[in-house]
Design brief:
The protein has about 230 residues and is α/β, with parallel strands linked by helices. The chain has nine helices and eight strands. The longest helix is centred in the N-terminal third of the chain and has 14 residues, at about 25-40.
Length: about 230
Amino acid sequence: MSEIASTAAAFPAAVLFDLDGTLLDSAPDMLATANAMLDTRGRAPITLDALRPVVSKGARAMVSVAFPELEQAPRDALIPEFLQRYEALIGQHAVLFDGVAGMLDALEAAGCVWGIVTNKPEYLARLILPQLGWETRCAVLIGGDTLAQRKPHPLPLLAAAERMQIAPGTCIYVGDDERDIVAANAAGMASVAALWGYRLDEDNPLAWGAEVMVEQPAELQHARAWPAARNPQ
């Protein structure tokens, strides 16, 4: 954990998570998708190291890495194909980050409810839940197209808290991208920056404004690693 100290004495009452780069290492699925598109066009594959940093930025960013020579309009035209190919192989290569399973077990054992707020389209995120056995464990799922706004707007986090019937200030949000922390701050939620996720070299988590930064999911198996809720009840 970073030098930013945690002040929590117990596990939070409720936690919301980003999905890709926070709970799920989906980069291998994304790589297979991009390389399938390149292969059909007679192009050389890209590497996981090239794609991984932008996975949390979404399909547009990943298509840009795979097809850097294209202008924005023709790249954007490839996004539907990317999503269709990804849907066909979703979950085949993705794995949980080490420590995520134990972290969720620890939260549930402490009586914490948890859910997911992701910018991934909801229909794709819902395909993942049964593969992981989360369809009954995850209390709420909000996707990037569920509502009129997506992160960094606070609306998805506020809607998730409402659906869980909790006050936003009692919830903690965990994410690996600056948009996650911006959304949490705007929603009045304490936040955890997941340093194990996907980041560009120029990203600076210290500047995001999270209450704590955590190096590995296993640290969050312990109550002391969590920040205090902003308005605990």
